[in-house]
């Protein structure tokens, strides 16, 4: 998805507002999740979005979104954002994030989605790491007990005899 940063997208310093960027990230990743699942999707969570460099008025912003892994009803989407200053020919990655979407039926209830099969080396790496990221976000959201987070056990230093 490509956007041009217009005056109404910026703050008083003429830089792109963070909220506008997150809106675009939400849209592009929702489209990726909808295309993968052929379903209506809702945003379930947004992993830390940070803004290292400001994006200027007049820059062209390119957002790329890809489903990294599908679980049951949820899908993790990786978004990479580039900012380009056309007159100077400078284009740089500005940020990236992982959003999670849940496919829902007509009543808004979660519904299973097809598996996502990684092909390239990078897709395989993102796919493999997605389980650890899922467990981390579910633990942080209070939806999974740290002791159930098998991929994170070493991080939380949970010993076998504390499992119960
Ligand atoms: C997301 C939502 C559908 C989950 O519904 P629920 O009744 O809690 O459903 P479940 O507990 O069965 O979870 C369904 C899936 O959501 C995932 N999920 C729920 N909360 C999550 C969170 N905070 N982060 C990541 N995934 C989450 C679960 O892991 C599960 O994934 P899986 O099916 O792949 O295993 C529901 O909470 C919802 O509709 N939220 C509002 C969404 C919305 O309006 N978004 C826009 C915000 S402005």
TrEMBL record:
Pfam families in alphabetical order: 4HBT
GO MF entries: long-chain fatty acyl-CoA hydrolase activity
Keyword Hydrolase belongs to the record: yes
Keywords: Hydrolase
Superkingdom, taxonomy of origin: Bacteria
One GO term describing the cellular component: cytoplasm
InterPro entries xref list: Cytosol_ACT, HOTDOG_ACOT, HotDog_dom_sf, Thioestr_dom
Domain HotDog ACOT-type as annotated: residue spans: 1-107
GO biological process, one term: acyl-CoA metabolic process
UniProt family annotation: Belongs to the acyl coenzyme A hydrolase family.
Protein name, entry field: Acyl-CoA hydrolase
């Amino acid at each position: 998805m490509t956007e041009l940063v217009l005056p109404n997208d910026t703050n008083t310093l003429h830089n792109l507002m963070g909220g506008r960027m997150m809106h675009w990230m939400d849209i592009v990743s929702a489209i990726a999740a909808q295309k993968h699942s052929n379903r209506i999707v809702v945003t379930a969570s947004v992993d830390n979005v940070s803004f290292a460099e400001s994006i200027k008025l007049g820059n062209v912003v390119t957002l790329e979104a890809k489903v990294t892994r599908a679980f049951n009803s949820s899908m993790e989407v990786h978004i990479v954002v580039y900012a380009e200053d056309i007159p100077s020919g400078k284009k740089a990655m500005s940020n990236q994030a992982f959003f999670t979407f849940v496919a829902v039926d007509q009543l808004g209830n979660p519904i299973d989605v097809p598996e996502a099969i990684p092909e390239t080396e990078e897709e395989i790496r993102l796919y493999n790491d997605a389980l650890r990221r899922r467990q981390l976000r579910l633990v942080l959201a209070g939806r999974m007990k740290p002791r159930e987070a098998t991929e994170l056990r070493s991080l939380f230093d949970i010993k076998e005899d504390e499992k119960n």
